[in-house]
Amino acid sequence: MSGVTNQEEDKKPTDQSAHINLKVKGQDGNEVFFRIKRSTQLKKLMNAYCDRQSVEINSIAFLFDGRRLRGEQTPDEVGLSLSLSHTHTHMQTHFQLSDFEMLLQLEMEDGDEIDAMLHQTGGATA
Fold first, then answer.
1. Is residue 93 part of a domain?
2. Domain ranges, residue 22
3. Are 69 and 102 in contact (CB under 8 A)?
4. Among 50, 54, 98, 105, which residue's Cα sits nearest to residue 76?
């Protein structure tokens, strides 16, 4: 009987951990809180944020730990495979490693913050 009780107790944390609380913070400091399933695509959160802020989805870049998020990603999938370009300096010798593939685990945790930044366009030539 105690085995059944343990199984039921094991299910409770799993059910609770199926959801994640995320905060989206705009450049103006405005914070919007969301509770979504870990398996929900982030585009649902992105669209809801843009609707609440009355902005076009194409005018906002969503960043997590400085890296741009894609709408088809889920909080559990934000263990991103990133192509990084590194510059290493050692005793005035410069080595450049381009197209260096690295798997980074950036799994989102409950209470994590996503930055919503306005796209910068334009610029003048001198």
1. no
2. 17-78+110-118
3. no
4. 105
> pTM for this one?
0.62
pLDDT 10s digits, 7-21: 444 444 455 578 889
Residue 29, SS3 per DSSP: coil
What's the CATH code of the domain at 30? 3.10.20.90
pLDDT tens figures, 94-119: 333 332 322 334 567 888 888 888 87
What the block records as the tokens of 28 is 């103006």
Q: Residue 97 domain-assigned?
A: no
When divided into structural domains, the chain yields a total of 1
Cα–Cα–Cα angle for 67, 90, 82, nearest 5°?
20
Separation of alpha carbons 97 and 13, rounded Å:
43
CB distance 111 to 19 below 8 Å? no
